[in-house]
Design goal:
Blueprint lengths: L1 H9 L1 H16 L12 E9 L2 E9 L3 E6 L2 E11 L2 E6 L5 H4 L2 E9 L2 E8 L7 E7 L2
Length: about 140
């Protein structure tokens, strides 16, 4: 018992640092106010082949209507929970378009959110992006 007591006394500083780190990391939480992004008008900017491309879309209760380079596309949106949804195109033009897209909001800040997305069933090929709410 004395050996154990001596061990703790010798390593007080180490335990104090460890406790401080544990306290810091347990208090830090990422903001996820996802409900405010279920409806509205949004902007998504992405670098494609060295060029910045911007897509605009509007969400209603169960629809997402996107305008990308003058082309309009619609998808049904199904919210799995407050921060995750699945998009299924209404009029797919290819087999690739028939595959639903899974979206997960990772964090929110002000009028924007960071998310990851992938085709349903292809979780090994997730990509990330940032979307800004404009209205």
């Amino acid at each position: 018992m004395e050996d154990l007591k001596g061990f703790f006394q010798k390593n007080k500083f180490l335990y104090l640092i460890l406790f401080g780190k544990l306290l810091f990391f347990s208090c830090y939480s990422v903001e996820r106010n996802c409900l405010k992004f279920h409806k509205g008008s949004f902007e998504f900017t992405k670098l494609i082949n060295g060029e910045i491309k911007t897509s605009y879309f509007t969400r209603t209760e169960d629809l997402e209507i996107e305008n990308y380079e003058g082309k309009i596309d619609s998808a049904r949106i199904s919210w799995v929970n407050d921060c995750e949804c699945v998009l299924t195109k209404l009029k797919p033009k290819s087999n690739q378009d028939k595959r639903p897209v899974q979206i997960k909001i990772l964090s929110t800040e002000g009028n924007s959110y960071t998310f990851e997305y992938s085709l349903v069933g292809q979780s090994d090929n997730k990509q990330r992006g940032n979307i800004k709410k404009i209205k």
